[in-house]
Amino acid sequence: MAWVGDGVWVTIRLDSTLRLYNVHTYQHLQDIDIEPYVSKMLGTGKLGFSFVRITALLISCNRLWMGTGNGVIISVPLSEAGNKQASASTTPSASGVRMPGAVVRVYSDSRENITTGSFVPYCSMAQAQLSFHGHRDSVKFFVAVPGTGGMGSSDKEGATEEKTGDIALGSEDASPKCMLVLSGGEGYIDFRVGDGEEEESSGDRISVAIGAPVEKKLHQGTSKSERSHLIVWEVALNE
Prior knowledge:
One of its GO terms (molecular function) is JUN kinase binding. InterPro entries: JIP3/JIP4. One of its GO terms (biological process) is vesicle-mediated transport. By secondary structure, the protein is of the alpha+beta class. It has five helices and 14 strands. Strands 5, 6, 7, 8 and 9 form a five-stranded antiparallel β-sheet that branches. It has a four-stranded antiparallel β-sheet with strand order 1-2-3-4.
């Protein structure tokens, strides 16, 4: 379940369909089936994609993030295209006066920044983006945290200690420049390459060579494909 504005996206366990409902009237607004999209992008016979189910949901950066039981991660931009039709029934009449019995929405918590008819998170799979970086097993969860302006900002030669100090201290009013979206699950796979055991074994040799005996002991008896992984996306925020 994922909620924003006046809409909530809901999915049932072991189902590939997302359903959008109005949080106030409980009206069913939209259905989205992601299985045809995943099958089209990755193929029906590849890595057991015969059955797609949604296991994780998140709304962040004006996008709906979906994780599946096959480790596939999809993000779809939210759209206001459907809001015009939805808001037409709640607009005042030509005289500027609402008809008797019209719906009046009351919000008690101003901290949520929600106003009357604020936003209904419609989306279209025609604008969906599939990440070629995924997990070998189901996507367990999504988390979104504010960033400080880029993963590579610390590598710039022009960075000074004074600037670093300013970032560390930071004013409370400073708004984040980006969001970091993290997905968690077992194993990692690049769907463009596929299931390569040779790459995993060579990756283990490299990690040991650069000096990670603690990590090797920690995961002793566990192959790389079975370890828990976090995948991080950096999404810039519009200023």
